[in-house]
Amino acid sequence: MRLILASLVLVALLLQTEACNHVGEAMGGAMDMIDAYQDMHQADYVGADKYFHARGNRDAASRGPGGRWAAEKISDAKEWFDQIRGDPAADSEMDQEANRLGRDGGDISVLLPPGMDEPTDD
User: Fold this and answer.
1) Residue ranges per domain, the chain?
2) CA distance 113 to 95
3) Nearest to residue 95, comparing CAs of 33, 44, 42?
4) Mind listing the pLDDT tens digit of every residue in the chain (122 residues)?
5) Closest C-alpha to 71, from 102, 114, 112
6) In sequence order, what DSSP letters do the residues of 27-48 get, joined into one string?
7) Which residues contact 111 (CB under 8 A, 6 or more apart)?
């Protein structure tokens, strides 16, 4: 009986640690999305929005399952809100393609507009 109780406590602790990791990943992923959004506005480069969509999703997803979850939920909410505001569904779908490319670890440099170099972390 003690062995079963000890096993249950151990499993509960492991699950709690896993849950905490996912929460931390999600919070970090949300910050990655905010950073990419701020960098997009700072770059102020016409046609670069798809690149920054992908970069935020890539950075968030690289944190693990929690970061990937946060990136997907934030991206979905943003596109839903944009459509409520009147943006065409086709624009949202192109943004979502960029989001998926980033989350899936694709080559996001293909989304850079002509003449723009890939930003570096300074």
Assistant:
1) 22-111
2) 15
3) 33
4) 666 665 555 555 555 666 667 888 999 999 999 999 999 999 999 999 999 999 999 999 999 999 999 999 999 999 999 999 999 999 999 999 999 999 999 999 999 999 998 887 65
5) 102
6) HHHHHHHHHHHHHHHHH--TT-
7) 50, 51, 53, 54, 98, 101
Q: Would you say domain 22-111 falls under CATH 1.10.132.110? A: yes
Comparing CA positions, the residue from 60, 13, 12 lying closest to residue 35 is 60
In the structure encoding, which two tokens stand for residue 21, read together? 């990791």
- What pTM does this model have? 0.82
